[in-house]
Amino acid sequence: MASENKFEPTNPTLKWIEDRLPLMGLIYNSIGGGYNVPRNLNYWWNFGVLAGFMMVVQIVTGIILAMHYIPNIDLAFDSVQHIKRDVNYGWLLQAIHANGASMFFIVVYVHILRGFYFGSYKAPREILWFLGIIIYLIMMATGFMGYVLPWGQMSFWGAKVITNLFSVFDFIPFIGDGIVNWLWGGFSVGQPTLNRFFSLHYLLPFVLVGVVILHVWALHIPGSTNPLGIDAKGKHDKIPFHPYYTAKDAFGLGVFIIFFAAFVFYIPDFLGHPDNYIKANPLVTPTHIVPEWYYLPFYAILRAIDNKLIGVLAMFSSILIMFAMPWLDGARVRSMRFRPLSRFFFWLFVANGIFLGYLGQRAPDDILWFGLVATSYAQMATFFYFAYFLIIMPLVSRMETTKPVPTSIAAAVLEANKKG
Amino acid sequence: MTTHDDVVEERRNFLYIATGAAGVVAAGAAAWPLIDQMNPSKDVLALSSIEVDLSKIPLGQNAVFLWRGNPVFVRHRTEAEIAEARAGDTADLADPEKDEDRVQKPEWLIISAVCTHLGCVPLEHHGDFDGWLCPCHGSHYDISGRVTKGPAPLNLPVVPYEFLDDSTVRIG
Predict the structure, then answer these.
(1) Taking the mean position of all CA atoms in its chain, how far away is CA A393?
(2) Residue B124 vs residues A159, A222, A228, B120, B141: alpha-carbon distances, Å
(3) Is A89 left (phi over 0), alpha (psi -120 to 50) or beta?
């Protein structure tokens, strides 16, 4: 979106700088008064900014933790306890970082589902959407490696199970056989593994920053979507990002920080696992291995399939399938406000995802209801997960009669105000 | 008819391809150390073998030893367990193997304790087949360490070992 309000500093010093390096103009046009945004964004549009905030929180606290953490299999576990007990404010920084990972995933999940609901992946925002999926994949890799660093029992066995996922590719000649040994740097998860995970856990967030910059860049080409899903047509459909949305985002950020702080100060271990307070022991697998909550739905998909290769491929596909959404969804209307049937299936998809998460933390042989074990329910939920993308989305989006769409954002907003 | 321009163009194309090919080879050669450094280092590869004193493992018991960073099961099998393992030879197995091919002495089963699904350590005296049960994703193994149920694709592999005498075995 080309800026309609140009940044022209009156201060001669600022002007001198701006003429040579238009950095202030870039910021002004990205998140300032120079970026014009649809006037009808609701609070679901806060979560992109919240995700950016969490990324900064994680990087700042992470860099500090790395000043005290020791990536050595004999010392890592104790160094985390040292951070929590001895380092000044270490208890706070560690709790922010550990819970921050969960907070980052919460806001990103809402942000992704916002995209599902309001059709943010549809033309002309496909590449914006792809960059988002890449960000999500980098987050998953970073979160996984970070969880290994405290070197507790869940860290160790989580690392072992997830790296073993790659052993399914052992049918590939030359590289397949040694792929897990290459990942581990040995015959098992050990010192070389911990060391390289620490290195990559430090690196990947900066890669993430790079992709986020591309994501924001791609966002500024067509501009934000909006709850109505119609294109902003003229000046009366838009308002400048600053002060309108900086204020709205600041309010949302305040509410979010209260939520975040409740975890950090009152229940810092609520989202963790007691087993991770036991130092890693390569001889004993905890009786019940569970990943962090944000991976549970995918873990349930992995376990639902009784074949290692197909299970692993299903798990990877469950995320990669989002790349196809711009084409799986053939609807001409973006927002599900005007697509009641799609909206019904969307909420079913959300409920199914939560159900998969629930199943992911149960033991596979647990008998749940009607004498059926968790795995049987996981199979049904996995079927629905893929059916949503491959059957429901292509058919419903093309066959559904949509409700009438307003002629412009301004018209819809003014209409609502008249009624209000 | 071959003109001067054709010759020049042909020569230029040849140079493009030759330069490009040399560049690809050089890039690959430069990348290889960056990739190969992640493979097990020499000290890891040089990890020695271990010796296990079998006289300390009572009949019917399962002992676990750490070899190259991974646990190994040494199971002292009873006559009944051996018979059960032999009977299992005819079962419908995902990875068919005879029990006699998996042991040097039938009373001593020495196998990797790493589940072939995703690497957890299975629990002994658990599961539907009197052998092991992997707690992570529910793979069952029989008393010969063969997968009988669940997502694991292969049997628990037999590790290399040799008997030094009747009560000592060297693994590795």
Answers:
(1) 22
(2) 23, 60, 59, 13, 9
(3) left
With respect to residue A197, please indicate whether it lies within any of the assigned structural domains: yes
Distances in Å between the alpha carbon of A287 and those of A42, A284, B78, B121, B136?
A: 45, 9, 26, 10, 7
Q: What is the mean pLDDT of each run of 10 residues along chain A (420 residues)?
A: 66 92 89 87 94 96 95 95 93 95 96 95 94 96 95 92 82 75 88 95 97 94 90 86 91 95 94 90 84 92 84 92 94 92 95 93 79 85 95 93 86 78
A183, A187, A289, A379: best mutation site toward chain B, by most B Cβ within 10 Å?
A187
Give a yes or no: residue A203 inside a domain. yes
pLDDT of the residue at A386: 95
Confidence (pTM)? 0.85
Nearest to A124 by CA among A335, A326, A395, A325: A326
Q: How far is CA B67 from CA A102, B52, B71, B171, B172, in A?
A: 36, 11, 6, 8, 8
Name residue, tokens 């750490």. B66
Across the interface, do A188 and B69 touch by the CB < 8 Å criterion? yes
**Letter for the amino acid at A304?**
A
Q: What are the residues of chain B with a beta carbon less than 8 Å away from any beta carbon of chain A?
A: 35, 38-41, 44, 47, 64, 66, 68-71, 114, 117-123, 134-138, 150-153
Q: What is the pLDDT of residues A312-339, one digit of tens each?
A: 899 999 999 999 999 999 988 999 999 9
Answer yes or no: is A343 within a domain: no
pLDDT at position B1: 66
Radius of gyration of chain B (CA): 26
For residue A188, the chain B residues in CB contact (below 8 A) are 68-70, 114
Answer whether A160 sits within 8 Å of B119, measured CB to CB: yes
DSSP secondary structure of A56-70? HHHHHHHHHHHTT--
**A314 falls within a domain:** no
From the list A322, A346, A342, the residue with the least C-alpha distance to A331 is A342
Residues comprising chain B, all counted:
172
Query: CA–CA separation, B140 vs B36, rounded Å?
Result: 36
At residue A337, φ and ψ (nearest 5 deg) are -60, -30
Burial A216-250 (b: 16+ CB within 10 A, else e): eebbbeebbbbbbbbebeeeebbbbbbebbeebbe
Range of the domain at A90: 18-300
What is the domain count for chain A? 1
The CATH number linked to A89 is 1.20.810.10
Active-site residue flag, A400: no
**Whole-number Cα distances in Å, A403 to A146, A293, A335:** 46, 37, 11
Integer-rounded Cα Rg, in Å, for chain A is 24
